[in-house]
Structures are given as C-alpha cells and as structure tokens.
Write a structure and sequence with these properties.
Helices cover about 45% and strands about 10% of the residues. By secondary structure, the chain is α/β, with parallel strands linked by helices. Strand 4 and strand 5 form a beta hairpin. The protein is globular and about 65 Å long.
Length: about 450
C-alpha cells in the first residue's frame, strides 16, 4: 500500500470471530467495524473479529467483493476543507451469504466463541413481514439460539445498530414475537436469557458510487471494489447491560446506563432534520445534500424546526451543549465533499417518518407545542411521493410501501395521505391537519421554493 494509506497494525491471522454482523453495508463498515479496527490496532479485542452475513439477495455483490479482497476494504473520510484520509479496515475476517448456505450462518452464530450478533437491517427489517422465513435476519438468529439452548451454550447478545428509538427493545420484541409463533417456551426463554442493549449510532455514510472508486485509485493508488466514504464525525452510545463485549470505551464509545436521551437527540435532530431537507430540497431541484444545507432559506427552516419543534421534545441531557450540537449538525450536512444524495434521504420514508418525525408531532400536540414545520415536512413527503416533479418529470419513489404511498399521494383528497396507519390518528386532529393541508395546497399550487418562503 502507498504510504498515504493507513493499514492494520495487527496480524489478521491472529484474529478470531467473536461478532456476527447481519446486514453488512456502508454504515456498518464505517462504524462498528471501524471502532473494532481501532481496538485491534491498539492490541485489543483480537478475539472479537467480525463475520459479516448477507441476508438479502442484493447482498450477493458484497459477498463477491469482500471475498475477493479477503474482507479488506478502504474507508475514506472526507473533511469539509477538502482533506481526505484513506484507511484499510481489517476487522471483518469472514463473510457468509445466507441464501447460499443458511446452515453455515447458523453454525457460526451457534459457535460459543460468538458472543455478540449485531445488525443493521434498516428500520423496515424489524417488521412482521421482514421476520418471515428461516433465512431472514431474525429467522437465522432464532435458529442459532435454539441450537445454543440445546447445546447448553449461553445465548449471544443481540446488538441493534439501526436508527430506531429504543432499538434494543425493538429487536427484543421482534425476535421474541417471531419465536412465539411456533414455540411459546422458546419465546419466554429469549425474553429471559438474551440481552438486547440499546445503542445510538451516528455517522453520515452515503452510498458508494463509481466516482468514489475512481477517486480512491487516482488520489491514493488503491483499487477497491467497494470502498466506503464517510464524514469524519462518528458517535456511538451504548447501553451498559452487563453483557460480554469488546472494550468499546477504549475506542471512544460512550457506555451509559440509559441511551434513550441520546437516541432522541439524534433521531429528532439529525434524522428528522434530514427529512426536513430532502423532499423540499428535491422538489426545489437539489440533488446533493450539501447544496440544500448551504442554501440560506433551507438553513433557516432547518434551524427553526430544530429549535422550535424538535428540541422541546427532548429529555434532559447532562453535559450536552444542544446549541453547539445543532450548529455541528448543520455544518455536517453542508460538508461539500461527502456528496450525500438527496435521493438517499428520500428513500424508504414509510420506515423513517413514523420513527423519526411522527413522535415529535405527537409529543408537541400533547403538550401544546408547535407543529407547523413538521406538518410541512409531512406535506412535502406527500407531494414528493406523487413521483412527478414541478416540471412534470417522473422519478422513482423508493419505498417498501411504494404503491400505497403513491396512491394516497395522488388522491385529490388532501387528507388521504394522512389516513394511513403510519400516522396514527393525526388525520383526526385539526391542530395538525390545518397546517398540513395549507402546506400541501401551497406545494401543489405555488411550488416548493415559494412554500418554503412562507414557512420562515
């Protein structure tokens, strides 16, 4: 490797598998795998190597790339001033593809040396439909836990790294519910014996594109079939639940008694703010996130949402400077070198809006808070979900509930979009429907840019 590229300082042949990770994507490779690589470079956690597992058919390409590269890949961090660093990550030492050989995955997770099964399966991966089948993430975990129970091997810890409020409890409910369908005793055992610590994860990691591969080769002389690019910022807060785990705190992870306040801060200020930008941004003609975030009108709208609607719903956060956190978020969004796409933020909104924004709306309604900007964000999703921009050009709406979402968005009834289980009873509350209908009508008549001006 060129001298400008950092490489593992440890002997990878000495690394043994202690973690199985389901859903190896860009975020996992920029986050958990990177923290573990930090520990290994410091001479720690060599018995906590990662076995990555692909669960979906779309993971086949990841299987091919990682196997061809001995599971090595490059992490490129892009700073706002244009500085770039390249680092080869070596903490993933094995990759299995469940559709090819589910038994190999189950056997690996049943291995007593594996003490943690982590997952990034997106917000939709915890739903009832996602749990069906022996090759699903939860099907594989349950089969491995059954085997460990039969062999009198202690269960592994399930560590969710997805952007879901109380993700540990969500994973616990999903796995125990899946078990209860066939074996109530097994479900009770899961609830009693398996640990599900919650965690808050944060790092902006856009999808890798060919330009990233080309840039890595040109600037650093590295040929990599699937590098990862990310911002320099990273944060991970984990709940302390007494489980066996790597010494994460030595790599900068915050291990705390209660993750919830940190979760709410991140989900409602970072994740929901992404939704505040993306639909209005797309309809206004922006295609890159930093372009939206650098626009003065969008910056003002974003700050208003953060200060007046999101922040009042947060729980006390001792030691956290929220104004500084909000400023840092806006600076991160505006980093021109990360080149995160607006379309990525617009995708899978039926999983994101109910998880990130609807709780903000419900809490503000319950306490007499403001909801005008949140209503406009939901309205902008409804307008975006028609699949046709303000110039009449069609675009793809990426969503697991695409047909239903688009059908409701195209309905002449302005409340049709809200009359969906995703929004609870918001359609019946005039305190929300009035600003929502006003924003949607404005978007349909005068467009996103002019509507944004009315919201400032």
């Amino acid at each position: 490797m060129p001298g400008s590229v950092t490489t593992p300082r440890y002997d990878r042949a000495a690394v043994t598998v202690g973690i199985v990770h389901l859903g190896v994507g860009s975020f996992h490779r920029a986050h958990l795998a990177r923290y573990l690589d930090d520990l290994m470079n410091a001479g720690e956690a060599l018995d906590w190597g990662i076995c990555g597992v692909g669960v979906m058919e779309s993971d086949r390409r990841m299987r091919d790339v990682l196997r061809a590269q001995d599971c090595l890949y490059t992490l490129v961090e892009k700073y706002a001033d244009g500085t770039r660093t390249a680092r080869v990550i070596g903490s993933i030492v094995e990759y299995l593809f469940a559709p090819d050989d589910p038994e190999a995955v189950i056997a690996r997770m049943a291995d007593p040396a594996v003490r943690v099964v982590s997952l990034t399966v997106t917000e939709g991966g915890y739903g009832e439909r996602a749990q069906v089948g022996p090759c699903s993430a939860f099907g594989l975990m349950l089969a491995a836990l059954v085997r460990r129970r039969e062999q009198d091997t202690p269960p592994f810890t399930v560590l969710s790294c997805d952007n879901i409020e109380n993700n540990g409890e969500t994973a616990r409910h999903a796995l125990s519910s899946f078990a209860a369908r066939t074996d109530p005793d097994l479900a009770a055992w899961v609830l009693e014996q398996v640990r599900f610590p919650s965690s808050m994860v944060d790092r902006i990691t856009p999808a890798t594109v060919d330009a990233d591969r080309d840039e890595l080769a040109a600037q650093f002389g590295v040929l990599d079939g699937w590098p990862v690019v990310s911002e320099p910022f990273t944060q991970w807060v984990q709940e302390e639940s007494g489980e066996a785990r790597p010494p994460w705190q030595d790599a900068g992870v915050q291990v705390v008694p209660d993750v919830r306040p940190y979760e709410l801060m991140k989900l409602r200020l970072l994740n929901a703010s992404h939704q505040a930008l993306c639909y209005l941004g797309w309809l206004s003609g922006f295609r890159l996130v930093h372009e939206v975030a650098q626009d003065p009108s969008f910056r003002a709208f974003l700050l208003d949402y953060m200060e007046r609607e999101a922040t009042p719903t947060l729980e006390p956060l001792p030691g956290i400077d929220l104004p500084a956190y909000r400023r840092e978020l806006r600076a991160r969004f505006a980093n021109p070198h990360v080149r995160d796409t607006v379309s990525r933020l617009c995708a899978e909104s039926s999983d994101r809006i109910p998880t990130w924004l609807v709780p903000v709306i419900q809490q503000n309604l319950a306490h007499g808070g403001e909801v005008r900007r949140s209503a406009a964000i939901v309205a902008s999703w409804a307008r975006y979900a028609t699949g046709v921009d303000e110039q009449g050009q069609a675009y793809e709406v990426v969503d697991r509930r695409r047909d239903e979402v688009m059908s409701r968005a195209q309905d002449a009834d302005p409340l049709a979009f809200l009359r969906c289980e995703l929004f609870g009873d918001l359609a019946a509350d005039p305190r929300f429907t009035e600003p929502y209908v006003a924003a949607l009508t404005s978007l349909r008549t005068i467009g996103a840019r002019a509507t944004l001006a009315t919201l400032l």
